[in-house]
Design goal:
CATH class of the largest domain: Mainly Alpha
Structural class: mainly alpha
Number of domains: 2
Largest sheet: none
Strand content: under 5%
CATH architecture of the largest domain: Alpha Horseshoe
Shape: elongated
Radius of gyration: 25 Å
Distance between the termini: 96 Å
């Protein structure tokens, strides 16, 4: 009788384990969204709270799912600006322009990244483009750009 019970356990145990692992795997797949919008929405919430590391991570995840999302490049670029990663920010704004050349906010933020790198001529060019596209440049930024670049236009 004991041998019959042991045999039954060794027959049933692999079946039970198979179903447990299958269930766990299905749960894990459900926990990992496949929609870029999920990551973008969460990243924007992080961005609004000033949690730029988390925001950048989620924008990166969104771009892995949807590499043609101009908004994700734009917002990740803002995150990089806020982290002081100006070259990375400029790269992201450039990618955003490839997808959406009329993204006025991206011109402003790329201009601010150039300003931070003391590349004032490039900054002025982007600020002018942002203004031409209707973006309202903060007066304090314009004042600082004028003072630091010794230009008036």
């Amino acid at each position: 009788m004991k041998n019959a019970s042991n045999k039954t356990i060794w027959i049933i145990l692999p079946i039970v384990l198979f179903f447990l692992f299958s269930y766990a795997s299905a749960q894990q797949k459900q926990d990992k969204p496949k929609d870029a919008k999920f990551y973008i929405d969460r990243a924007i919430a992080y961005e609004e709270k000033g949690q730029f590391d988390q925001a950048v991570d989620d924008f990166t995840k969104a771009l892995e799912i949807d590499p043609k999302n101009a908004g994700a490049y734009y917002h990740r670029g803002i995150g990089y600006v806020n982290q002081g990663q100006y070259s990375w920010a400029i790269d992201d704004f450039n990618k955003a322009f490839e997808i959406d050349p009329k993204n006025a906010g991206a011109y402003y933020y790329r201009g601010s990244a150039y300003y931070s790198k003391k590349e004032y001529d490039k900054s002025w060019k982007d600020i002018k483009k942002a203004q031409d596209l209707g973006y309202k440049i903060p007066p304090k930024f314009l004042e600082n750009l004028r003072d630091d670049s010794a230009r008036r236009n």
